[in-house]
Design brief:
- The protein has about 55 residues and is mainly α.
- It has a domain at about 30-53.
- Helix content is about 60%, strand content about 0%.
- It contains two helices and no strands.
- The chain has helices spanning about 15-35, 40-50.
- The longest helix is centred in the middle third of the chain and has 19 residues, at about 15-35.
């Protein structure tokens, strides 16, 4: 039974990846929260009303 290595010990694909992961993870987290929320239609309606002049 192999144990998965902790994320800190996993080698990065490129030196740019940690920065990009830090940059995009909050955005991806909130997008996932929004997409999986039951109020997705309400959020879309509010966003549409805010974007309309």
């Amino acid at each position: 039974m192999r144990q998965p290595r902790p994320a800190l010990l996993r080698p990065a694909a490129s030196p740019v990846m940690p920065d990009r992961r830090l940059l995009y993870s909050p955005f991806l987290y909130f997008r996932r929260r929004i997409l999986h929320s039951r109020h997705y239609a309400d959020l879309l309606r509010v966003a549409g009303a805010l974007c309309r002049p």
